[in-house]
Amino acid sequence: MAASATRRLYESFPFPSPGADRPLIDVVGNELPLVVEGGLRDGWSVLDAGCGTGHTLIGLARAYPHVHFVGLEPSDASRDIARHLAERHGTTNVEIVDGAIPDTVIERRFEFIYSYGVVHHLPDPQAGLNWLGDHLAEDGLLHVWLYNAIGEAQRMRDRELVRLMAAHADGHGLDVVRALGFSLSLDAYGMPGAWAGTALDQAEQDVFDADAYLNPVVHTLRFGDLPELLDGVTDWVAADRVYGPHGAPYLDLSGTGGFPAQGPELLRPEDLFDDPGLRTRIGDLGNLDRLRAVELVLRPTGFRALAGRGGSLNRCSRRIAGNLLTGPAGRAQVP
Ligand SMILES: C[S@@+](CC[C@H](N)C(=O)[O-])C[C@H]1O[C@@H](n2cnc3c(N)ncnc32)[C@H](O)[C@@H]1O
Question: Which residue ranges of the chain lie beneath pLDDT 50?
Answer without folding.
Answer: 1, 329-335
